[in-house]
Amino acid sequence: MSAETHANTGHSVALDVNDLGVSYFTSSGEIKAADGVSFSILPGKRMGLVGESGSGKTTTALALMRLIKPPGCITKGSAVIDGIDLLSLSEEEMRTAKLSQIALVPQGAMNSLNPVAKVKNQIIDGLRDHDAQHSASQYRELVTELLDKVGLNRQVGDMYPHELSGGMKQRVTIAIAISMGPKVIIADEPTSALDVVVQRQIMETLAELQDELGAAILLIGHDIGLMAQFVDTLGVMYAGKLVETGTLRQLLREPKHPYTQMLIDSLPSLERKDRKRGDLRGIPGTAPSLYALPSGCPFHPRCPQAMEICPSEEPLLKVVNDDHAANQGEQQAACLLY
Amino acid sequence: MSSLIELKNTSKIFGTGWFSRKTVALRDFSISIDEDEPAITALVGESGSGKTTIARLILGIIPPTTGEVLYRGKAVARLSRAERRQFRRDVQVIFQDPFEVYNPFYKVDHALHLPVRKAGLASSRDEAVEIIETTLRQVGLNPRDTLGRYPHQLSGGQRQRVMVARALLLNPKLIVADEPVSMVDASLRATILENLRQLNAEFGISIIYITHDLTTAYEISEKIVVLYRGVVAEQGDVVPVVEEPEHPYTQLLIGSIPMPDPDQKWQQGLEVVSPTTDGADDTMNAEYAGCQFADRCPHAMEICKEAAPLYQTAPNRVVSCHLYRETAVV
Ligand SMILES: Nc1ncnc2c1ncn2[C@@H]1O[C@H](COP(=O)(O)OP(=O)(O)OP(=O)(O)O)[C@@H](O)[C@H]1O
Ligand SMILES: Nc1ncnc2c1ncn2[C@@H]1O[C@H](COP(=O)(O)OP(=O)(O)O)[C@@H](O)[C@H]1O
Ligand code: SF4
Ligand code: SF4
Ligand SMILES: [Mg+2]
Ligand SMILES: [Mg+2]
């Protein structure tokens, strides 16, 4: 399905992020929560972003939405959709770009719906931000249409969040996100609180909507299994940096960065045939403090393949596997082994 | 055999007021946590299936509508002040949405110092800090990145791990972990689960591991309870339940696990119901008396309009489904 969309739209890029930097300035110093993050997604394609907790995934998403609040700020970079750099828009321009160009289903969104407002009013609030032109009955129709798109019936509009199941709430947050037909949808762990059956239904709905809109999706999450079912390409973050990117197959079958290798190796036994029950393999050591990042390669204190040079030289992303012949696209890793 | 905590035929109905809709969050649920044989028990079910309700009953945060919650054989509501204090130390919790637990105006340090002080674990502030830092490291957190911060300054997974550390601080007998790893990456998930397992094996702490994720339940627990809309679907030793599920719901769950394999896509043709009925529809209505899974079940029969009792299909295994009506009822 995504291949068709792709063919129709050619090779133009839906979202092009270049050298994005976000820092938080706290009393103990500056932390670079995202540092030099670059990636792009083609229209109709889906990219996954995985990485350790605190590695900067949500920060990246919030930056693209221009939602970084003090003490944080975007320190560098660009994020281009349709020739427009979101990061250099004025506040006012960004307000219109939100939802119509780029929309976010935030982490924990289903729990942050307003508990005292009816579902329909929460959807209308989002629409009204863009144009307050519609009449009450037009809004009603729009809400019904949106609810229908996410697989909810119209009665849900008159309900309060606590009357909905988790899956239904998550559908509401998706309805809000797609209300203006964005070109890029960012979903930050949209199903991490739901069981696998509901999760699958939601992801299928999201895929249908994406198809309809011809949008690109950036899916943030921890569940490699879910990624394997859903995305085309994958990015891996570690300590604020993108350390590996490539197609899903490349990263799952031939991960190059030692961190990615260990991440894949830590998957539970029910999801793989080569592992006994209870054989848990976390990556030893703690994620580095962003206040005092290890020198050179930030992964070196935990890396089983570290070399003498690793503490002193910082690896940059470079092409490690260029499979254009096999129509695979290129795989990049930031590791001195390559 | 002495049980630390026991839930005896407990039910919880919300919305018993005049105008509110009744929701049956839990129906006739029983479980006993044995002090002498500390085990890891997984409670698995979709969102809204009653997992957190069970956690809150065990913790004495809410009373059951019917049935009993016992701590060392005594009703939780009737504990003396001293017993209650011991109960509060013995039973610790790691909540699902850690953000709600923190006070946004206090730094996270507060949430850690408070239990240390209340339980008199340290004789000086330095000692308290040391205990806290050690515990933070045990859960894979860097104290420097954690202490001195406000809750919103931590990532989702970091907040979650601070809660694990907090529960660990008090040396409890039972830890109820409500979705402790739902927001962390695979590697850290493995580390935290390994932590829970160590707590169980080395310190003899019983664990109730609440999750919607069967794969991790399979990984660390010995026993499993699969819940569906407030009712036990299947309960028993984890290996047979996961490897040869008997209840149609357990079968559906296992068939839906997304495999991290580009060549193994979601099984096609699985019976998947309309999303509008996932969880919060009429079957949670107090009046509905049939099998909770009937509207989604590919094997539903006439008899399924009546609730199925728990059938004992093996020595350590019960299934609530009419397909097993040839076997004995518990
Ligand atoms: N408002 C803030 N002030 C200071 N530091 C922050 C703030 N928000 C996030 N951080 C820090 O920035 C880093 C990246 O956080 P981010 O939320 O992007 O992580 P994440 O990759 O989304 O993690 P998770 O998987 O746990 O959600 C973390 O070290 C976090 O503590
Ligand atoms: N305080 C409450 N008031 C009304 N309904 C509630 C309350 N708490 C939980 N419920 C309902 O009880 C059911 C079970 O909820 P819960 O135990 O939180 O499920 P889980 O933790 O498995 O997601 C849900 O339908 C939920 O909406
Ligand atoms: S650069 Fe060195 S330390 Fe870093 S991941 Fe590669 S081998 Fe390991
Ligand atoms: S009792 Fe009937 S409806 Fe319920 S799970 Fe068994 S076969 Fe399906
Ligand atoms: Mg996040
Ligand atoms: Mg819950």
What would your notes on this structure say?
The complex is a heterodimer of chains A (338) and B (330). Chain A is an alpha/beta fold and 338 residues long. Chain A has a domain at 3-92 and 184-195 and 217-314 and 322-333: Rossmann fold, CATH 3.40.50. Chain A is 30% helix and 23% strand. Chain A is built from ten helices and twelve strands. Chain A has helices at residues 2-9, 57-64, 91-100, 119-128, 136-149, 166-178, 196-213, 224-230, 248-253, 258-265; strands at 15-26, 29-41, 46-51, 72-81, 84-85, 102-105, 184-188, 216-220, 233-238, 241-247, 318-322, 330-333. An eight-stranded mixed β-sheet of chain A has the order 6-7-8-3-9-10-12-11, sandwiched between helices. Chain A has a four-stranded antiparallel β-sheet with strand order 2-1-4-5. In chain A, a hairpin with a 2-residue loop joins strand 1 and strand 2. The longest helix of chain A is centred in the middle third of the chain and has 18 residues, at 196-213. Chain B is of the alpha/beta class. Chain B is built from eleven helices and twelve strands. In chain B, the strands form two sheets. Chain B has an eight-stranded mixed β-sheet with strand order 6-7-8-3-9-10-12-11, with helices on both faces. A four-stranded antiparallel β-sheet of chain B has the order 2-1-4-5, covered by helices on one side. In chain B, a hairpin with a 2-residue loop joins strand 4 (66-71) and strand 5. In chain B, helix 4 packs parallel to helix 7 (156-169) and helix 5 packs across helix 7 (156-169). The radius of gyration of chain B is 21 Å and the shape is globular. Mean pLDDT of chain B is 85; it is low at 271-283. The chains are: A alpha/beta (338), B alpha/beta (330). Chains A and B meet through helix 6, helix 7, helix 8, helix 9 and helix 10 of A and helix 7, helix 8 and helix 9 of B. The complex binds adenosine-5'-triphosphate, adenosine-5'-diphosphate, iron/sulfur cluster (SF4) (2 copies) and magnesium ion (2 copies). The site of one magnesium ion has 4 residues of chain A, from helix 2. Adenosine-5'-triphosphate sits between chains A (24, 26, 33, 51, 53-59, 71-72, 107, 290) and B (152-158, 183).
